């Protein structure tokens, strides 16, 4: 299977955090999972990314990594 069929293809998208546009690169599978989590909470993807960004705080590392960890933690909760 190729990366494109497994969701491993990296996609760069623009998101807004606290009114500022920034680009985030994630695998397509993570974008889908992030959209599903946001929908389940009744919020936009931008709002969820803003929450994740606030939780990681200053010096909390890379935003893309923080998003992946958030998605993974939610997947493990089942």
Please write out the topology.
Layout: H1 3-6, E1 10-17, E2 20-27, H2 28-41, H3 45-56, H4 63-77
Antiparallel strand pairs: 1-2
Describe it for me?
This protein has a single domain (3-77), classed as Ribbon-helix-helix fold (Orthogonal Bundle), CATH 1.10.3990.20. It has helices spanning 3-6, 28-41, 45-56, 63-77; strands at 10-17, 20-27. With 78 residues, it is an alpha+beta fold. It contains four helices and two strands, in the order αββααα. The chain has a two-stranded antiparallel ribbon. Helix 2 (28-41) packs across helix 4 (63-77).
Mean pLDDT: 90
Helix amount = 55-70%
Taking all Cα atoms into account, the compactness measure Rg is 12 Å
- The CATH superfamily title: protein bp1543
How many domains in all?
1
The backbone outline, from C-alpha atoms, is globular
Query: H/E element string?
Result: HEEHHH
CATH class: Mainly Alpha
Helix count?
Answer: 4
Biggest β-sheet strands, sense, barrel? 2 strands, antiparallel
Strand content: 15-25%
The end-to-end distance, rounded to whole angstroms, is 26 Å
Category from helices, strands and their pairing: alpha+beta
- CATH domain fold name: Ribbon-helix-helix fold
> How many beta-strand elements?
2
Low-confidence stretches: none
Strand order of the largest sheet: 1-2
For the record, the CATH architecture stands as Orthogonal Bundle
